[in-house]
Amino acid sequence: MKKITAMLLAGTMILSLAACGGGNTSKPAASNPATSKPAGSTPAASDADYSSLPKVELIGADSTGKGAAGQLFGELVSAKVDEITGGQLTIEYFPNGELGADADILRQMKANEIQMVVCQTAPVVSFVPEVAVFDLPMVFAKYDGTTIDKVLNGSDSAFKTDLGAAFNNGGFELLGILQNATYRLTTANKDLKTLADFKDLQIRTMENPNHMAFWTAIGAQPTPMAWNEVYFALQSGNIAAQENAADTCVGSNLNEVQKYLAFTNHILYANMMIMNQDAYHDLDPLYQQALNQAVTEAMAEISAQLATIDADNKAELENRGMTLIEYAPEFYDEVLAVPGVVDLYKSIDDSIGGLGATLQDALANA
Asked: Which of 129, 201, 227, 258 is the most exposed place for a label (fewest CB within 10 A)?
């Protein structure tokens, strides 16, 4: 019953997204032709005969908010795996923190108590230190979703190979990274037109040392704070800004306490699908192919919607009275040339064995 519910909910959510102005999800390959298949996937997986294989049920989870991209991703993959294998391989999926917060479900996956997790990049760093590469500020800011996808998911991507090896060393299998060049943005009660405008800006951030070092480097004053305190801190003037994805800003009505929405694009909004490595390798190769195909198709369908959802939320914040601030590419170049930001790039890159340099080279040459 649980997996049937997950299939129906996933289908309902995708239809809901399409109704909000997205493309036709009946042809996922056409919606994002540059999405590359993870290693091992094959278009023929759906035509294979699974009836002779023993039935296998996996457990998957996320701790995202209801209706968030991570939930859509996990539940659509679950539905597709069931469909491709005729119910021989199934995923019982638990969304929205039903099995715990990010750290909890990642620990359970490490122990193979659950087999699959969908989450954003920041919580994974404690388990796979190389994921700190996604903390490089503005590293993706000037690239489109197709270019980023080639680097993160492409079969010939050196960065994907190196990152996948890091996951393997941690006991995990990285199945795919869902994104479409949408980012964490900055809201403020100050018109942040230039780099100089960030000086002394009191901004709430996640309690991530790399994120905090970035804001400090550009002259702001980062302040970690529990999310449930942020609205009232902005309302009272204890802080003047915060950073988050556009959908979070809409859902939290930050337009009521913030005047400006600045497209700082400092951190990519991405969701990783990760599996326990032993559980993945215990699957029959046909099941591995089916799972990889399901991930590829789900990423193609959902990523086509992400840019539309992001644009709709930005428009909604503008309709609610916020002023949108967009930047020319030169702004990002200026930020990345700040000595403290240069030092932060070097520090992160040194700590992850040069993976940051691999990422930058891959993006530049994609």
From this structure: 227
Q: Which helix (H) or strand (E) holds 91?
A: strand 89-94
The pTM score is 0.84
The three-state secondary structure class of 13 is: helix
125-146 confidence digits (pLDDT tens): 999 999 999 999 999 999 999 9
d(CA 131, CA 127): 9
Output the CA torsion 244→249→252→255 (10° steps): 130
Instruction: Give residue 28's pLDDT band: very low, low, confident or very high (50, 70, 90).
Output: very low
Q: Which residues contact 307 (CB under 8 A, 6 or more apart)?
A: 145, 180, 181, 182
Structure tokens that stand for 60 in this block: 């998957």
Domains of the chain, with CATH numbers?
A: 2-177+268-311 (3.40.190.170), 183-267+321-365 (3.40.190.170)
Cα–Cα distance for residue pair 14/12, rounded to 1 Å: 6
The 3-state DSSP class for residue 143 equals: coil
Closest C-alpha among 293, 259, 272 to residue 121: 272
SS3 content of the chain, % helix, strand, coil (to 5): 50, 15, 30
